[in-house]
Design goal:
By secondary structure, this protein is an alpha/beta fold. It is built from 9 helices and 7 strands. The chain has a domain at 2-13 and 71-112 and 128-198: HAD superfamily/HAD-like (Rossmann fold), CATH 3.40.50.
Length: 199
């Protein structure tokens, strides 16, 4: 049995933090896992910037409400789910993901959770498990699934490497150069055909 594991941001929806950075005019918040491989370091940096500017969950959720899936993303996901099982494995948070899942037709998602104070300020975050993407793929494999994965950032590389097939999607030139062993695609049609061939 096969299961496809997809990243969310950069693959199916735009990067939430980049959109929020543009909305607030705070360029430091545009840093993502494409720029910083250490997720804990990145999140502590983000939380510090939010605190400095007095911004909380409500303001981020207002930005998320305006975000639409990438053009063709829902159609790609629907077509893929007709072909095989699909799960989204993301380092985003349940407080961010729900409105986006609605727009994508409620696919399954495994993600993390923010720790939010009574005043709405984000004080921390709780990872679902350590090395969540790789750990989840390994758990699926232990249940008898063969995994095929796709993502765009440093934090996707472990799950891409661990499966029977893995693909980069709309990634950076630097990641493509450093990881030439993984086919890199720019369109949903290309990614769909590659996944179909790997099943």
């Amino acid at each position: 049995m096969n299961i496809v594991c997809l990243d969310l941001e950069g693959v199916l929806v735009p990067e939430i933090w980049i959109a929020f950075s543009q909305n607030t005019g705070i360029p430091e918040l545009s840093r993502t896992t494409r720029d910083e491989p250490d997720y804990d370091k990145l999140m502590k940096f983000r939380i510090g910037i939010l605190k400095e500017h007095g911004l909380g969950l409500k303001e981020i959720q207002e930005t998320i409400a305006k975000i639409e899936p990438m053009e063709g993303a829902k159609e790609f996901l629907d077509k893929l789910r007709e072909l095989t099982q699909v799960v989204i494995i993301s380092d985003t948070f349940s407080q961010f993901a729900k409105p986006l899942m609605k727009k994508l037709g409620w696919p399954s998602i495994f993600c993390n959770e923010l720790i939010v104070a009574d005043d709405g300020m984000i004080t921390g975050y709780k990872m679902r498990c350590e090395k969540s993407k790789l750990t989840t793929v390994k758990a699926l494999q232990s249940c008898g699934f063969e995994t095929i994965a796709s993502g765009d950032s440093f934090n996707d590389l472990a799950m891409i490497e661990a499966g029977k097939a893995g693909f980069l999607f709309r990634t950076t030139d630097a990641i493509k150069k450093d990881y030439p062993q993984y086919p890199a695609f720019e369109t949903y049609d290309e990614l769909y055909e590659a996944i179909k061939a790997a099943l």
